[in-house]
# Entry
Amino acid sequence: MLLSQIAASTLGFLAFRHLEPRFKAIGLTGIDVHKNWDHVAIEFGGIPLLLTLVACYAAAAIAASCMSRFYLAIMLVAVLSFTLGMLDDVAGISGPVKGVVFTLPSVGLFTAELNPYPRLPIVGMTRLTIFYFIIIPIYVSVVANSANMIDVMNGVLPSTCIIMLLGGILLAYFKGSTKPILLSVPMLFTLAVYLYYNWFPAKYFAGNCGSHMIGAVMAGIAILSGLEFYLVMAMLPYVLNSFSYLTSVKGFLERTRLEARPVIVRSGLIYANKDPRAPITLVGLLTSTSPKDEKLLIRQIVLLSVFSTVLSIATEVLLGA
Amino acid sequence: MVLNHLLDSDFIRALLLVVYGWALVIAALLVIKFLIIPIKPGRSLLIMYIVGIAKVVVSTAILLAMLYVWYLLSKRIYFKRIIPA
# Structure
């Protein structure tokens, strides 16, 4: 399994490297506004990311054939969310519509065996034979859109997802379950490759296609592993960011249609925007008293993610049924 | 030194919001566990469905209300810091 993942992620790494000059040559680049120099990065990192993800999951399906049905479901979720994200990148999808269309990738999960008896901490086993199948598409859409909304700084999305996956693996170890580990390992390798290219100063941005795909796949892994609640708790910084954003702009307003930006960048320092029309975001909260550079903000968001992951593991272990 | 640099007042406030969010979720779980009528075997299917739907509606309402409180708190913290009185 490990060897297959090393081989597949090496292929993915080569895809990122091989596509870099080609994307630059056709101008698929964007300016990183958080830098005090003219830093340009490739905007469609989702394309090599999808290739890496498919390679890692296909390799895993060969190495652990008993799990191939689940790996196929994850790949289907990835392809569907990537396609919708690409549509958003190219044509633009309005906010409320985004909430609805990103329920579609959950179709992939229905091809695998689902357990409508999730266990919640404190409550114990629940029987959601009907509602589980209604909640799943909403869950996938919420996680995918939250991942998209937090992807504003270099390396934040892949590093926080890696932390959550590692936490999930640790939790599975405590519970004596191997399924979450087998489902998470290919995503870990995929994200490790992407993190190399997205870490400060980023060479690639995921784009809407990449960030939505990462979110949808994370949701898929959580659902198929029975770690739905763990992910919700571990994602509290994401929830804080997206919920504050949505409630402060009073609806699903696109970033491009905002009357005021959440933050202002001056000489490489990020300031919270004092305009009352500016949405409240996690970065805005972290810069509310003093401006910060991007590197410090990235470290603080990662630290918040570590904290919420530890809190989530502790809740599952101490209060889990 | 590095930790001092990371753990500034804004970070501590964001951390407290995360802890508050966690506490809200735990509170919601406690409400679901103790305040909602459990489905007992032997009841008719219709009653079981009605109780099931009520559970989901009540839990969702509680969670949304708690999320709103969370938002109000973050908004209060944010604006209090950014525009000091």
